[in-house]
Write a sequence for this structure.
């Protein structure tokens, strides 16, 4: 196991590509501004890149595994053209009532990725736009960054919910490009984590 190499766990919709509400057409997939640059910067830091994505549209019958594969082929194509290679894409196809181990915020996808790719999940970074992404990161001991893209703008607003119901990120950032800059600073400091709800 090459546990010395650190990885970034990434949400897909609203973090890397534009949120489409159950994206089902590869031709409708488009990268968010700065996403490719941010991912390229993370890769240049020597980090592995893994997407962990809930895709309940399969369970709901909106699209099938073949269409999802085509969407991910398109994602690889767009990122490849920008000089970015993903180490893996892990998918939960289940619905919220299926009680599976893989649906975020549960840790199944992250643990499977860590086992298959040989990294320590507790030394990874989790970047996403939703509370479930941040909660997943917290569950596995990752440093968490909430991007203000996708649902992130709403998630980053002060909440009146009880503290136990909120997933508080280590860092709140504008987008993936900014996230990469924050991760660079963390790595330079040799810091394993950050201060709660720190904006960057």
């Amino acid at each position: 196991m090459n546990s010395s190499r650190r990885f970034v766990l990434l949400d897909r919709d609203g973090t890397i590509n534009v949120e489409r509400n159950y994206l089902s057409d590869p031709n409708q997939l488009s990268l968010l501004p700065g996403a490719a640059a941010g991912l390229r910067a993370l890769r240049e830091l020597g980090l592995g890149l893994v997407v962990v994505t809930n895709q309940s549209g399969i369970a709901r019958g909106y699209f099938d595994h073949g269409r999802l594969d085509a969407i991910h082929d398109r994602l690889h194509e767009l990122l490849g053209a920008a000089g970015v290679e993903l180490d893996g894409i892990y998918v939960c196809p289940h619905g919220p009532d299926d009680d599976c181990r893989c649906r975020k915020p549960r840790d199944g996808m992250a643990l499977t990725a860590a086992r298959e790719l040989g990294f320590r999940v507790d030394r990874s970074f989790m970047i996403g736009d939703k509370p479930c992404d941040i909660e997943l990161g917290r569950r596995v001991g990752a440093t968490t960054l909430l991007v203000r893209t996708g649902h992130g703008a709403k998630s980053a607003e002060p909440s009146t919910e009880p503290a136990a119901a909120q997933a508080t990120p280590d860092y709140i950032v504008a987008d993936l490009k900014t996230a990469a800059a924050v991760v660079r600073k963390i790595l330079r400091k040799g810091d394993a984590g950050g201060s709660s709800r720190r904006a960057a």
About this structure: The chain has one domain: 7-199. The longest helix spans residues 65-81. DSSP finds six helices and seven strands in the chain.
